[in-house]
Specification:
The protein has eleven helices and twelve strands. The protein is of the alpha+beta class and about 325 residues long. α8 runs antiparallel to α9. The longest helix is centred in the C-terminal third of the chain and has 22 residues. The N and C termini lie close together (about 5 Å).
Length: about 325
Protein backbone atom coordinates (compact mmCIF):
# COMPACT_ATOMS: atom_id res chain seq x y z
CA UNK A 1 0.00 0.00 0.00
CA UNK A 2 1.20 3.50 -0.88
CA UNK A 3 0.21 6.37 1.43
CA UNK A 4 1.04 9.98 0.61
CA UNK A 5 0.13 13.20 2.35
CA UNK A 6 0.20 16.85 1.34
CA UNK A 7 -0.15 19.82 3.71
CA UNK A 8 -2.78 22.52 3.56
CA UNK A 9 -1.63 26.14 3.72
CA UNK A 10 -2.19 29.64 4.99
CA UNK A 11 -1.16 32.79 3.10
CA UNK A 12 1.09 35.26 4.91
CA UNK A 13 1.17 38.04 2.31
CA UNK A 14 0.78 38.79 -1.39
CA UNK A 15 -2.02 36.32 -2.08
CA UNK A 16 -3.79 36.77 -5.42
CA UNK A 17 -0.68 37.77 -7.39
CA UNK A 18 -0.05 34.11 -8.34
CA UNK A 19 -2.73 34.05 -11.06
CA UNK A 20 -1.33 33.95 -14.62
CA UNK A 21 -3.56 36.89 -15.61
CA UNK A 22 -1.48 39.02 -13.21
CA UNK A 23 2.03 37.54 -13.09
CA UNK A 24 2.37 37.11 -16.86
CA UNK A 25 2.50 40.91 -17.13
CA UNK A 26 3.59 42.15 -13.73
CA UNK A 27 5.41 39.30 -11.85
CA UNK A 28 3.75 37.94 -8.70
CA UNK A 29 5.12 37.56 -5.18
CA UNK A 30 3.71 35.97 -2.04
CA UNK A 31 4.62 34.19 1.18
CA UNK A 32 2.81 31.00 2.16
CA UNK A 33 3.09 28.60 5.08
CA UNK A 34 2.26 24.90 5.09
CA UNK A 35 0.39 23.66 8.17
CA UNK A 36 -0.03 20.26 9.82
CA UNK A 37 -3.48 19.63 8.37
CA UNK A 38 -3.32 17.23 5.44
CA UNK A 39 -4.89 15.65 2.40
CA UNK A 40 -3.95 11.96 2.26
CA UNK A 41 -4.07 9.52 -0.64
CA UNK A 42 -3.88 5.74 -0.37
CA UNK A 43 -3.25 3.51 -3.37
CA UNK A 44 -3.13 -0.26 -3.39
CA UNK A 45 -3.61 -3.27 -5.65
CA UNK A 46 -6.87 -5.20 -5.64
CA UNK A 47 -7.96 -8.51 -7.15
CA UNK A 48 -10.71 -7.07 -9.35
CA UNK A 49 -10.21 -5.90 -12.97
CA UNK A 50 -11.37 -2.33 -12.42
CA UNK A 51 -10.34 0.97 -10.86
CA UNK A 52 -12.05 1.84 -7.58
CA UNK A 53 -11.95 5.51 -6.58
CA UNK A 54 -13.20 6.67 -3.17
CA UNK A 55 -13.61 10.35 -2.28
CA UNK A 56 -16.93 12.03 -1.37
CA UNK A 57 -18.31 9.66 -4.02
CA UNK A 58 -17.50 6.12 -5.11
CA UNK A 59 -16.50 5.34 -8.69
CA UNK A 60 -15.86 1.91 -10.19
CA UNK A 61 -14.58 2.17 -13.77
CA UNK A 62 -12.62 0.16 -16.33
CA UNK A 63 -10.88 3.00 -18.17
CA UNK A 64 -9.52 6.48 -17.52
CA UNK A 65 -12.09 8.01 -19.87
CA UNK A 66 -14.91 6.81 -17.61
CA UNK A 67 -13.63 8.67 -14.54
CA UNK A 68 -15.87 11.57 -13.46
CA UNK A 69 -13.41 13.19 -11.02
CA UNK A 70 -11.49 15.59 -13.30
CA UNK A 71 -8.24 15.86 -11.30
CA UNK A 72 -8.13 12.08 -10.80
CA UNK A 73 -8.72 11.49 -14.51
CA UNK A 74 -6.07 13.95 -15.73
CA UNK A 75 -3.49 12.86 -13.13
CA UNK A 76 -3.77 9.22 -14.19
CA UNK A 77 -3.40 10.29 -17.82
CA UNK A 78 -0.35 12.44 -17.11
CA UNK A 79 1.57 9.80 -15.14
CA UNK A 80 0.45 6.95 -17.42
CA UNK A 81 -0.83 4.50 -14.82
CA UNK A 82 -2.63 1.28 -15.76
CA UNK A 83 -5.94 1.54 -13.93
CA UNK A 84 -6.96 -2.10 -13.76
CA UNK A 85 -6.68 -3.65 -10.30
CA UNK A 86 -6.14 -0.41 -8.36
CA UNK A 87 -8.02 1.30 -5.54
CA UNK A 88 -7.37 4.98 -4.78
CA UNK A 89 -8.83 6.67 -1.71
CA UNK A 90 -8.60 10.29 -0.56
CA UNK A 91 -9.08 11.66 2.96
CA UNK A 92 -8.66 15.16 4.40
CA UNK A 93 -8.37 16.78 7.82
CA UNK A 94 -10.33 19.85 6.66
CA UNK A 95 -13.31 20.04 4.24
CA UNK A 96 -12.73 21.28 0.70
CA UNK A 97 -13.75 24.83 -0.20
CA UNK A 98 -12.55 26.38 3.05
CA UNK A 99 -9.65 28.50 1.78
CA UNK A 100 -6.69 26.35 2.82
CA UNK A 101 -5.69 25.19 -0.65
CA UNK A 102 -7.18 21.69 -0.51
CA UNK A 103 -7.40 21.26 -4.29
CA UNK A 104 -3.67 21.87 -4.77
CA UNK A 105 -2.88 19.59 -1.84
CA UNK A 106 -5.11 16.86 -3.25
CA UNK A 107 -3.46 17.07 -6.68
CA UNK A 108 0.12 16.99 -5.35
CA UNK A 109 -0.64 14.10 -2.98
CA UNK A 110 -2.31 12.15 -5.79
CA UNK A 111 0.55 12.75 -8.25
CA UNK A 112 3.09 11.75 -5.58
CA UNK A 113 1.23 8.48 -5.03
CA UNK A 114 1.02 7.75 -8.75
CA UNK A 115 4.71 8.51 -9.31
CA UNK A 116 5.61 6.31 -6.34
CA UNK A 117 3.50 3.54 -7.87
CA UNK A 118 5.48 3.96 -11.11
CA UNK A 119 8.76 4.11 -9.09
CA UNK A 120 9.47 7.63 -10.38
CA UNK A 121 11.50 10.11 -8.35
CA UNK A 122 10.09 13.63 -8.65
CA UNK A 123 11.40 16.98 -7.38
CA UNK A 124 8.94 19.26 -5.50
CA UNK A 125 9.21 21.84 -8.29
CA UNK A 126 8.23 19.27 -10.93
CA UNK A 127 5.45 17.95 -8.71
CA UNK A 128 4.04 21.45 -8.29
CA UNK A 129 4.32 22.22 -12.00
CA UNK A 130 2.51 19.01 -12.96
CA UNK A 131 -0.28 19.85 -10.51
CA UNK A 132 -0.52 23.39 -11.96
CA UNK A 133 -0.56 21.98 -15.50
CA UNK A 134 -3.52 19.75 -14.63
CA UNK A 135 -5.59 22.35 -12.79
CA UNK A 136 -4.76 25.47 -14.82
CA UNK A 137 -3.85 24.24 -18.32
CA UNK A 138 -5.92 21.07 -18.66
CA UNK A 139 -8.97 21.88 -16.55
CA UNK A 140 -8.91 25.66 -17.18
CA UNK A 141 -9.53 26.58 -13.54
CA UNK A 142 -9.08 30.36 -12.95
CA UNK A 143 -6.70 29.76 -10.04
CA UNK A 144 -3.10 30.54 -9.17
CA UNK A 145 0.01 28.48 -8.45
CA UNK A 146 0.37 29.16 -4.73
CA UNK A 147 -1.46 26.08 -3.42
CA UNK A 148 0.38 23.51 -5.52
CA UNK A 149 3.80 24.99 -4.79
CA UNK A 150 3.47 25.40 -1.01
CA UNK A 151 1.95 21.91 -0.75
CA UNK A 152 4.90 20.43 -2.62
CA UNK A 153 7.61 22.41 -0.78
CA UNK A 154 6.20 22.88 2.72
CA UNK A 155 7.68 25.30 5.26
CA UNK A 156 7.35 29.08 5.27
CA UNK A 157 8.27 29.84 1.70
CA UNK A 158 8.56 32.88 -0.57
CA UNK A 159 7.48 32.49 -4.19
CA UNK A 160 8.06 34.75 -7.16
CA UNK A 161 5.94 34.06 -10.24
CA UNK A 162 7.65 35.19 -13.43
CA UNK A 163 6.20 36.03 -16.87
CA UNK A 164 6.51 32.83 -18.88
CA UNK A 165 5.50 30.65 -15.93
CA UNK A 166 8.82 30.15 -14.12
CA UNK A 167 8.51 30.07 -10.32
CA UNK A 168 11.33 30.91 -7.92
CA UNK A 169 11.04 29.51 -4.39
CA UNK A 170 13.16 30.16 -1.31
CA UNK A 171 12.61 29.78 2.46
CA UNK A 172 11.57 32.79 4.51
CA UNK A 173 14.64 33.86 6.52
CA UNK A 174 12.97 33.93 9.92
CA UNK A 175 14.75 33.24 13.21
CA UNK A 176 13.60 30.50 15.58
CA UNK A 177 12.13 32.80 18.24
CA UNK A 178 10.04 34.70 15.70
CA UNK A 179 8.93 31.43 14.11
CA UNK A 180 7.73 30.00 17.43
CA UNK A 181 5.96 33.23 18.39
CA UNK A 182 4.26 33.41 14.99
CA UNK A 183 3.13 29.79 15.28
CA UNK A 184 1.81 30.34 18.81
CA UNK A 185 0.01 33.62 18.09
CA UNK A 186 -1.76 32.82 14.81
CA UNK A 187 -5.29 31.49 15.39
CA UNK A 188 -7.66 29.95 12.84
CA UNK A 189 -11.46 30.01 13.19
CA UNK A 190 -13.81 28.23 10.78
CA UNK A 191 -16.69 30.44 9.63
CA UNK A 192 -18.89 27.49 8.75
CA UNK A 193 -19.09 28.63 5.11
CA UNK A 194 -17.65 26.62 2.24
CA UNK A 195 -17.33 28.11 -1.23
CA UNK A 196 -15.79 27.51 -4.65
CA UNK A 197 -12.48 29.33 -5.01
CA UNK A 198 -12.92 29.25 -8.78
CA UNK A 199 -16.13 31.27 -8.68
CA UNK A 200 -14.55 33.95 -6.46
CA UNK A 201 -11.28 34.09 -8.40
CA UNK A 202 -12.96 34.21 -11.81
CA UNK A 203 -14.01 37.83 -11.24
CA UNK A 204 -10.40 38.79 -10.39
CA UNK A 205 -9.08 36.78 -13.32
CA UNK A 206 -11.51 38.32 -15.82
CA UNK A 207 -10.77 41.87 -14.67
CA UNK A 208 -7.00 41.29 -14.76
CA UNK A 209 -7.24 39.94 -18.32
CA UNK A 210 -9.17 43.07 -19.32
CA UNK A 211 -6.49 45.26 -17.66
CA UNK A 212 -9.06 46.70 -15.26
CA UNK A 213 -7.08 49.52 -13.64
CA UNK A 214 -8.66 49.22 -10.18
CA UNK A 215 -8.02 45.45 -10.02
CA UNK A 216 -4.44 45.71 -11.29
CA UNK A 217 -3.65 48.58 -8.89
CA UNK A 218 -5.17 46.56 -6.03
CA UNK A 219 -2.92 43.59 -6.85
CA UNK A 220 0.14 45.86 -7.20
CA UNK A 221 -0.56 47.13 -3.68
CA UNK A 222 -1.12 43.61 -2.32
CA UNK A 223 2.21 42.50 -3.81
CA UNK A 224 3.91 45.42 -2.07
CA UNK A 225 2.20 44.37 1.18
CA UNK A 226 3.66 40.88 0.63
CA UNK A 227 7.17 42.36 0.35
CA UNK A 228 6.59 44.44 3.49
CA UNK A 229 5.28 41.36 5.33
CA UNK A 230 8.45 39.49 4.35
CA UNK A 231 10.60 42.30 5.77
CA UNK A 232 8.55 42.46 8.98
CA UNK A 233 8.79 38.69 9.56
CA UNK A 234 12.50 38.56 8.81
CA UNK A 235 13.06 41.53 11.15
CA UNK A 236 11.08 39.78 13.88
CA UNK A 237 8.48 42.58 13.98
CA UNK A 238 5.31 40.54 14.41
CA UNK A 239 3.19 43.53 15.47
CA UNK A 240 4.00 45.18 12.14
CA UNK A 241 3.17 41.91 10.35
CA UNK A 242 -0.22 41.82 12.10
CA UNK A 243 -0.95 45.43 11.07
CA UNK A 244 -0.13 44.55 7.47
CA UNK A 245 -2.56 41.63 7.63
CA UNK A 246 -5.33 44.07 8.51
CA UNK A 247 -4.42 46.41 5.64
CA UNK A 248 -4.32 43.42 3.29
CA UNK A 249 -7.82 42.34 4.33
CA UNK A 250 -9.27 45.82 3.77
CA UNK A 251 -7.86 45.85 0.22
CA UNK A 252 -8.76 42.23 -0.46
CA UNK A 253 -12.44 42.99 0.23
CA UNK A 254 -12.38 45.58 -2.58
CA UNK A 255 -11.65 42.93 -5.23
CA UNK A 256 -15.12 41.37 -5.11
CA UNK A 257 -18.50 41.97 -3.55
CA UNK A 258 -18.54 38.28 -2.61
CA UNK A 259 -15.29 38.48 -0.63
CA UNK A 260 -17.04 39.02 2.72
CA UNK A 261 -20.51 39.41 4.23
CA UNK A 262 -22.01 41.21 7.24
CA UNK A 263 -21.58 38.20 9.54
CA UNK A 264 -17.90 37.74 8.65
CA UNK A 265 -17.36 41.50 9.11
CA UNK A 266 -19.02 41.32 12.54
CA UNK A 267 -16.78 38.42 13.65
CA UNK A 268 -13.74 40.26 12.38
CA UNK A 269 -14.60 43.40 14.36
CA UNK A 270 -15.31 41.31 17.47
CA UNK A 271 -11.85 39.76 17.21
CA UNK A 272 -10.19 43.15 16.65
CA UNK A 273 -11.92 44.47 19.76
CA UNK A 274 -10.69 41.53 21.83
CA UNK A 275 -6.96 41.27 21.31
CA UNK A 276 -6.49 40.51 17.60
CA UNK A 277 -3.80 42.86 16.31
CA UNK A 278 -4.57 41.90 12.72
CA UNK A 279 -6.32 39.30 10.64
CA UNK A 280 -7.91 38.33 7.35
CA UNK A 281 -10.02 35.70 5.65
CA UNK A 282 -7.78 32.94 4.27
CA UNK A 283 -7.98 31.95 0.61
CA UNK A 284 -10.07 33.36 -2.21
CA UNK A 285 -12.74 34.76 0.14
CA UNK A 286 -16.46 34.30 0.68
CA UNK A 287 -16.05 31.83 3.55
CA UNK A 288 -13.58 29.34 4.96
CA UNK A 289 -11.26 30.40 7.78
CA UNK A 290 -10.61 33.67 9.56
CA UNK A 291 -7.00 33.97 10.72
CA UNK A 292 -5.92 36.38 13.46
CA UNK A 293 -2.64 37.34 15.09
CA UNK A 294 -3.09 37.89 18.82
CA UNK A 295 -0.58 38.08 21.66
CA UNK A 296 -3.45 37.93 24.19
CA UNK A 297 -4.80 34.62 22.90
CA UNK A 298 -6.89 33.85 26.00
CA UNK A 299 -8.93 37.03 25.60
CA UNK A 300 -9.49 36.39 21.88
CA UNK A 301 -10.51 32.76 22.42
CA UNK A 302 -12.93 33.78 25.16
CA UNK A 303 -14.58 36.34 22.87
CA UNK A 304 -14.78 34.01 19.88
CA UNK A 305 -16.28 31.27 22.07
CA UNK A 306 -19.43 33.41 22.13
CA UNK A 307 -19.84 32.88 18.37
CA UNK A 308 -20.48 29.71 16.40
CA UNK A 309 -16.93 29.72 15.04
CA UNK A 310 -14.79 26.67 15.71
CA UNK A 311 -11.05 27.10 16.32
CA UNK A 312 -8.64 24.78 14.52
CA UNK A 313 -5.22 24.69 16.17
CA UNK A 314 -2.21 24.03 13.98
CA UNK A 315 1.58 23.91 13.69
CA UNK A 316 3.71 24.58 10.62
CA UNK A 317 4.71 21.71 8.34
CA UNK A 318 8.27 21.62 6.99
CA UNK A 319 8.12 18.40 4.97
CA UNK A 320 5.77 19.24 2.10
CA UNK A 321 4.22 16.48 0.00
CA UNK A 322 5.73 13.16 1.03
CA UNK A 323 5.29 9.42 0.83
CA UNK A 324 4.45 7.96 4.25
CA UNK A 325 4.47 4.29 3.19
CA UNK A 326 5.23 2.35 0.03
Amino acid sequence: MIITRSPLRISLGGGGTDLPSYYEKHTGFLIAAAIDKYVCITLHHTFVPELIIKYSKLERVHSIDEIHHPIMRESLRLVGVEVSGLEITSMADIPAGTGLGSSGSFTTALLKALHTHKKNLIHPRDLAEQACHIEIDQLKEPIGKQDQYIAAYGGLTCFQFQPGGQVEAWPLRINSETLYNLEDNLLLFFTGYSRSASSILKEQDDKSKKHDRRMVDNLHFVKELGQQSKEALEDGDLVRFAELMNVHWEHKKKRSGGMSNPEIDRWYELARANGALGGKLIGAGGGGFLMFYAEDKTRLRRAMAQTKLREVRFRFDFEGTKCMAA
